[in-house]
Amino acid sequence: MIRLSCDYHEGCHPKVMERLVATNMEQTVGYGMDPYCREAAEAIRTAFDCPDAAVHFLVGGTQANTTVIASALRPYEGVLCAHTGHINTHETGAIESSGHKCLTLPGKDGRITASQVSVASALQADDEHTVRPGMVYISLSTELGTVYNLSQLMDLHYTCRQHGMYLFIDGARLGYALAAPTGDLTPADIAKYCDVFTVGGTKVGALFGEAVVIVNPELSSRFRYMIKQRGGLLAKGRLLGVQFSALMEDGLYFEIGRKAVEQAMRIRTALLDKGIPLLVDSPTNQLFPIFSDEQAEALEEDFDLSFFERMDESHAALRVCTSWATPDEYVDKFIEAIQNL
Amino acid sequence: MIRLSCDYHEGCHPKVMERLVATNMEQTVGYGMDPYCREAAEAIRTAFDCPDAAVHFLVGGTQANTTVIASALRPYEGVLCAHTGHINTHETGAIESSGHKCLTLPGKDGRITASQVSVASALQADDEHTVRPGMVYISLSTELGTVYNLSQLMDLHYTCRQHGMYLFIDGARLGYALAAPTGDLTPADIAKYCDVFTVGGTKVGALFGEAVVIVNPELSSRFRYMIKQRGGLLAKGRLLGVQFSALMEDGLYFEIGRKAVEQAMRIRTALLDKGIPLLVDSPTNQLFPIFSDEQAEALEEDFDLSFFERMDESHAALRVCTSWATPDEYVDKFIEAIQNL
Amino acid sequence: MIRLSCDYHEGCHPKVMERLVATNMEQTVGYGMDPYCREAAEAIRTAFDCPDAAVHFLVGGTQANTTVIASALRPYEGVLCAHTGHINTHETGAIESSGHKCLTLPGKDGRITASQVSVASALQADDEHTVRPGMVYISLSTELGTVYNLSQLMDLHYTCRQHGMYLFIDGARLGYALAAPTGDLTPADIAKYCDVFTVGGTKVGALFGEAVVIVNPELSSRFRYMIKQRGGLLAKGRLLGVQFSALMEDGLYFEIGRKAVEQAMRIRTALLDKGIPLLVDSPTNQLFPIFSDEQAEALEEDFDLSFFERMDESHAALRVCTSWATPDEYVDKFIEAIQNL
Amino acid sequence: MIRLSCDYHEGCHPKVMERLVATNMEQTVGYGMDPYCREAAEAIRTAFDCPDAAVHFLVGGTQANTTVIASALRPYEGVLCAHTGHINTHETGAIESSGHKCLTLPGKDGRITASQVSVASALQADDEHTVRPGMVYISLSTELGTVYNLSQLMDLHYTCRQHGMYLFIDGARLGYALAAPTGDLTPADIAKYCDVFTVGGTKVGALFGEAVVIVNPELSSRFRYMIKQRGGLLAKGRLLGVQFSALMEDGLYFEIGRKAVEQAMRIRTALLDKGIPLLVDSPTNQLFPIFSDEQAEALEEDFDLSFFERMDESHAALRVCTSWATPDEYVDKFIEAIQNL
């Protein structure tokens, strides 16, 4: 069985593991105050061209999202997001459990627009009977594999500024987003046009780990208290530093992102060649082909894919993922299987 | 510099690392539904003789404590604990952030008694103006290195039953507690005389990880929802299964606990021989010698110890920890240093 | 200026005030343990034919809703409701501040259907990554003045049972809902086909006060703790008992509801006669006529109405409310003004 | 049966009721935006000499305390208070339910000192593993009837400033505190030496109501959102304005406070004359005599008193309260009963 249903089936990139093994018996102080975390933070600041940013390392995505949002918002504030946003759909109400409402905006392909944000903010208009939007959350790439381009991101950024809201980019799949062939965002753009973003490790080469990069200093006050309170301060914090150091070295993080997206694009071409429609035309490592139930059944003999959405009585959109760990051989076999449908 | 200030300076036991390396590129399903987690859960149920317990794996201790407590209590309930309890002192109010009050009981050496619990519960007496004690939290070993004996644990267990409260054992250092030379608790006793307990990996041989063992089925309903909501559901959950499998194999977990406690006892003897008083006489891997400031300064040239509490103008209690990773050589050197004071 | 913009412009019904004055200097115990509260609870049990229900009195609606929902749900559970539901739109995220997500269902006229609930519940299907729907919230009458009929309520009730959810009826305007000329619900139906409901006093004759009637005994355990914790346990609780006693006496509550709805229906007829369209055709005390901006301006010279929703560049839906306190003379004048448009 | 067990047995002062009756059928806008609330706010600003303070009206004390504290603190901050503080003992964990820890300080007579606050703050010393003290809460008068004098209040104020904490005075019984014969605080001192305080109506002449007076503008941002979210925004908000207007008129609030304290002092003299010891020597309307069980039994034939604390096998401290509503005749009878013991 070849698993292409998500991007966290394997452990970590061999170079990351090598580093964990090499440092295993070293003694360091705990809780992320060690030299490896300092080194990794510096590497991220360099890679994203944000020399003054505060960088923190947390274990997982839901944890990182909740900590960032709970830290930024006042109790009566909520977070605007696409209705498909991970915080709205797949975090078991973690944001609400911290007291804040997800204020959802409809979005066809996982993205939201500056004008949606602007309208939502204007409608609220300082009415204490309603939740005040205090932050905008976008995922990059989105849950549907799409990416924002530079002008869309800049629009969101300026709209947030104008309405007194923060912009938060959930980069759980940032490595793949930055590799989108149709994209025009650079790492520096990410840091420049938001207040806080994450660099996802779990899905891009690490065993686990999300780096929280706080660009806006208003958001950095006592952030470590927030991490600790929400259970995210890893005792052996250096494990995160070691991993992100390895990933940032020589641009490994970006390179493995590119490779996975190239593989996905090969699959995309095969799907289109075969006449399989796509739910959305994603330029990153997640694809959403719409198969007939018969086709799906045939594929699932050899491949583990992920059910996404029923389209009609005999068709459903599935999710197909490549990742940093996908061997070319798996991609070849999957393409062959598509051709044989 | 030799670090003896805590029990999480190093990575993980070589046998654990070996297993992580061996399984690194395997593909498994995520979120703890993989065969390694099943295997590790089974091994824990066997080791603690609780064949029907539900076993879940979380990354860290604060996370595990908050998830267990928030899952067990109704909104108006609080948790009785020693004022020195980890949840009360060193979790940045994580329990309170989940809405529940720590109801503290004074305790000289980190332990609380069944009669304290009984009195606290009686005082509350169904008065809706006060927080209802819904759970008792004890740590084993405690934050002061002490352990409960079997009759103390049984008393707490029966008192909790009588007053409609759950008993929760925080076993962040369970491997060391069970190795106390003065102790009489077996793993099976732990499971038998509480409602839920944790088996700490972070401080006892793992890179990270706490197993939550739910003995009382009342507490197991939809516990995975709680883990996910509180950010504790590791995407690559098998990392926890792999580690705990390795730790449980051939009793490694208990063996490394014993070794560390033996080392601590050697240090204890050296301290007593030298006439150094102890804040509490701990039978586990944490010792609390009271040094003069001069002595402390001398030791800290070569050893990293942990400040615990100032006693008077010229004396302070420090914490000295051994762990699964402490080489005998470090212990020898430290004993020599004590003798030379 | 005649105010018809909401149903809480005045103080309380003269008979309620009379009773407050008469009992003012009596000494009673506090916190709702007094004879007046007992008497009022009994009167409500009788009026709604639910002899075993637990009845509690709270001051306000947001408070009552949050207390009921936070008491009923487990931390990972949310509450299904119309996207127009009061808890979703006009309580500043109070439900979320208690940790629970509002799971919204689209609804044209303020109502939701059993089949919507059924689908939403099936989609969740025991997936710990998503919020579990634990309760359905409906308002009666709804925020758009509509009411459920008996078969709709029964369908919701059975669907909730089937999916292990509670059904909660927010009766802030229950007195008006039960007077709907097109309705077929009796007070006894309300109690029979839900798990918990409120009887709103604030908008129906009292100075303030909402009675929470818990029909399902699963929901009544230690509810007073919840009230106290959420700031709803009025020190001089008898003020609520005195008011609800007065309202329940000789069916005053239902009588003043009927009167207000009759007045609204007179206005409705005048609007339809004049050819003014209605956003929804409400059978209760709130009407939602769509006026041209010119018409609205003319009316607002003498009448305070409430803006509801812009329809197009030159039309908006306004809300017109009658209440227990509306003099016939106000209604006559408003009808005259409509006719003169 | 004469009730002297608390200060909220009766309704409201006749002048307050008169005003409620007189305005009952007036139409005003809701939620505290009416002229009566404006008038009352202005009267409070004048009485306490704080012309720039923001004044808000809430229904009850637990609600006011939770709203103030939850509004002022960041998620990881807690509130320092006496272990006897109302927020710590008699609010069913309302503060914790909003996510914040009560950091208790021992206090013999209900008061805490600036040096206790200073030490507690220094111990925390920017350690992200512990709760940061962000506010100091004192009650005035305290739960034991005692009051702070000017120099104590000033010390607390400056200590809070120094450590970056807010000072919050819970004035549920402020009217009685200001009347303490041994006290030297003026209303203006209250406003001058804290960041936020409440003026309690419930226990001092109103049916219900606490005025929150925010002196430090840092705390006033969007406070109405907080009130609404926590269920404290009364629909017919003018009821609070009307009552506080009546209470502030011609100093009625202070006058009825003085009267009740004079009555209490007469009882105190009688107790001392009879040789009855006092748990604390309170200079306000709450007294805490220690009676033998025999004496208590004798008194409780005619008087409802409140059990406070068992002293030994045959003695207990009871609470005796006077209030704005206590007739002199009750005091006479109680003194006579004491003399006859």
Elements of chain A, N to C (H/E):
EHHEHEHHEHEHEHHEEHHHEEHEEEH
Structural class from helices and strands of chain A?
A: alpha/beta
Which pair of protein chains has the largest interface, and what are the residue counts? A-B, 49 and 49 residues
How many β-strand stretches of chain A? 13
Q: Report strand order across the widest sheet of chain A.
A: 2-8-7-6-5-3-4
Number of helices of chain A: 14
Q: Cα distance, first to last residue of chain A?
A: 18 Å
Described by strand count, sense and barrel closure, the largest sheet of chain A is: 7 strands, mixed
Would you kindly provide a written description of the structure presented here, covering whatever features stand out?
The structure is a homotetramer of 341-residue chains. With 341 residues, the first copy, chain A, is an alpha/beta fold. Chain A has helices at 14-23, 35-47, 61-72, 86-89, 94-97, 114-124, 150-162, 174-177, 187-192, 223-229, 238-248, 252-273, 293-299, 328-339; strands at 2-3, 54-58, 77-82, 102-105, 132-139, 166-170, 196-200, 210-214, 286-287, 290-292, 303-304, 306-312, 315-321. In chain A, the strands form three sheets. In chain A, strands 2-8-7-6-5-3-4 form a seven-stranded mixed β-sheet, sandwiched between helices. In chain A, strands 9, 10, 12 and 13 form a four-stranded antiparallel β-sheet that branches. In chain A, α7 (150-162) links the parallel β5 (132-139) and β6. The mean pLDDT of chain A is 97. Chains A and B meet through β1, α1, α3 and α10 of A and β1, α1, α3 and α10 of B.
